[in-house]
Structure formats: structure tokens, C-alpha cells
Amino acid sequence: MLGGSVLWFRHGLRLHDNPSLHSALEEKGFPFFPIFIFDGETAGIRKLCFEQDCEPVWRARDDSVKNACKEIGVVCKEHVSHTLWEPDTHTVATIGDPPRPVGEVDFTGVKFGSLPESFYNEFTVFDKTPKPEDLGVFLETEDIRMIRWVGGETTALKQMQQRLTVEYETFLSFYWSVQDLFRQVHQGRLTSNSASHFITGQLIWREYFYTMSVNNPNYGQMAGNPICLDIPWKTPSGDELQRSVCAGNWMWVSSSAFEALLDSGECACPVRLGQRLDPSGEYVRRYVPELARMPVEYIYEPWKAPIDVQERASCIIGKDYPDPVVNHLVAAQRNRNAMKWLSRSVAGRLQKDKWFDIVGELRHILQKAPPHCCPSSEDEIRQFMWLNE
């Protein structure tokens, strides 16, 4: 058993395009241990490989592991594969080509290490893969059991290809519809697939935020975070948004780090925004099944539906679905006022007898701020937040 190599899984279990896995299997004939937690000194390993966690919250842990490996003579290899570039050492001015994808691993001849019997006695070993309920994890409510989540790397790769096909065909059909693609091909001007620009932009956007997080230990919170305004947000009120998050997504847009958005004085109306982004209301119908049969003209304002319409939709407001919990017009004005007061508080120039202009006040704040995370232009803000033109 002595002399084995360990692959330390942290964020993911992927076998596809995993340079740490390749590194762990470089030397044939030695036991191989793919693990989450492992006592390397007891097992007598000679090599530890893992994917880099670039966020500062994990730095102390990984530094301790590296030091421990050095003390006991274990080779420690950390690979950059969760991000495209090494965030801690690269800047926009110095980045080169990102690491190339690596091939799939041939496990023929790989000798998987076996655990000593004492491990089975010391730790709980399941006879089969446990369900979340076996570990005390339950759904918040049975109402969100609307999708069947099929996990696994094979499924993920298949779904990614399906999604890329949809994206490609969607963008391609647009160019065909305006005959632009034919004209550019005919004139020899088409050099790249325009559909790829959007995907590339999203990847670089993700990379940018990882880079911004490297030297910011408070990156995951507002308090003490130099790139955020510490805004006392209230509980969000969109049922379909919260249910979709519970069903397997995540909330990835917060204005906390986008203070330039706050100088517009705009408050997005959830009714008008929904009507613009999803006119047919399919998103609401999926995640708020109580409103699934509501006519499209009332899907975003069901409380305005006449009682006979509510009856036909099997959704009586106040009984099957709650009455409005907030008056949007009143709440929007209250939020505008709150942001004005916040801008003065941050600037440290609160004056009770005078209202500062929110645009000028926030710009004054930002001029004094150190370099930090923010959109590069107003156009980028509006595009990112799906605001009206």
C-alpha cells in the first residue's frame, strides 16, 4: 500500500478534462486513491494532486496541506482547472492562452488502493449510495418537487452539448432570417461564429470575478467588502424566482457590487420586467403552478383578474394564491428614498435639511473609492441587469 498517489476531490468529481487526475495517474503500478478526506501520513502516500481553489477562504487550508506534504516528503501538485487562468498571478495585461483541455483517462491497468479494515470500523461506510434523507437533508417543501435532477458527469456533458446546439441554431437562424449570413459568406467577410461571442463573454465574466476575489477575504459578503455597498436588503418577493432557486439554480445577480447601477435612480418593476422578458409567462407557470391556468394578461398581476377568470383558472386570490404582499409603487418610492439616504451615509455628509442628488452624490463617492469591481460602462450595466433601452 505504501507509495500510492491521491487525487483530492473538492468542488467536483469530474473525470473529463481533469489535469489533476492525469497527474495522479502518471506513475503506473502504484495504488491510486480518489478521495475527499484522507490521512496521508497513515496511508504512506507519496503524491497528492488537487484542483486549485483560488478563493481566499480556502487559502489557509490549502497552504496547511502543502506545508504538511513538504514536512513528510509528499509531492504536492496543484492544478489550475476550475478557472481558465491562474487568478493570483495573472492580470488582464499578462494573461496568455489558457490551459488546453486534457483528454479522457484510460483506467486500464490502474490499481485502485484498498483501505485497511480499521477504517471501516472507525468510520461509517454505507452499503450503497445514501439518499439525502439518510443524511438528514430534506426538501424545504414538497411543492418544489417538480423536477427530477439527474446528476453525473455523463449527463452533464450530454446536456451541455444539447444546450450548445440550441444556442448555435438560435443565433444561426437569426442571421439566416435577415440574409446577413449569406451575404457575408458570399463576400468572404465571415470569420467567426457570432454565437460564440456570447458564450466567450460569459466565461470571461466568470473569470473576472474569480480574479477579483483572490485578495478579498470578504468577497462572499457585503460587510467589510471593499467592492460592495453594505445595503440592508429586504427579503425578495418573487415566488417563481425563489422556487426556481430551490429547484436547482442559484441567485447570481446582486446589485451589492454594482453601485454604478444605483446612480440611475431606477427601480425595476417586477410586473413590467416579467412581461418584457417572458411575455407568455412560461417561467411563472412552471414554478408557480397555482397560476398555471391563469390567462396571459393576468399572469403577472393575478389579483387584477375578475372573479370568474380566477374560478376558471382554479386560482382564487386570497385563497389558492395570496393577495399582493407589497404595493410596487409605494415600495419603489420608499427604495429610492432609502438609496438617497444610503448615499449620504456612505459619503459621511448627511444633512437633514437638504436632499442630495443621488447621481452626483454616488459619483462623488466612487471618485474617492479605491480600484474595485464594477461594470465598465452604463451600457454594460443595462445589459447585465436587463434594463430597458
Automatic annotation (TrEMBL):
GO CC aspect terms: nucleus; perinuclear region of cytoplasm
Limits of the Photolyase/cryptochrome alpha/beta domain: 1-84
Localization in the cell: Cytoplasm, Perinuclear region; Nucleus
SUPFAM superfamilies linked to this entry: Cryptochrome/photolyase FAD-binding domain (SSF48173), Cryptochrome/photolyase, N-terminal domain (SSF52425)
One Pfam entry name: FAD_binding_7
BP GO terms, sorted: circadian regulation of gene expression; entrainment of circadian clock by photoperiod; negative regulation of DNA-templated transcription
Keyword list, A-Z: Biological rhythms, Chromophore, Cytoplasm, FAD, Flavoprotein, Nucleotide-binding, Nucleus, Photoreceptor protein, Receptor, Repressor, Sensory transduction, Transcription, Transcription regulation
Cofactor(s) listed: FAD
UniProt cross-references to PROSITE patterns, sorted A to Z: PHR_CRY_ALPHA_BETA (PS51645)
GO molecular function: DNA binding; FAD binding; photoreceptor activity
Main subcellular localisation: cytoplasm
UniProt similarity note: Belongs to the DNA photolyase class-1 family.
The name this protein goes by in its record: Cryptochrome-1
Species per Swiss-Prot/TrEMBL record: Spodoptera exigua
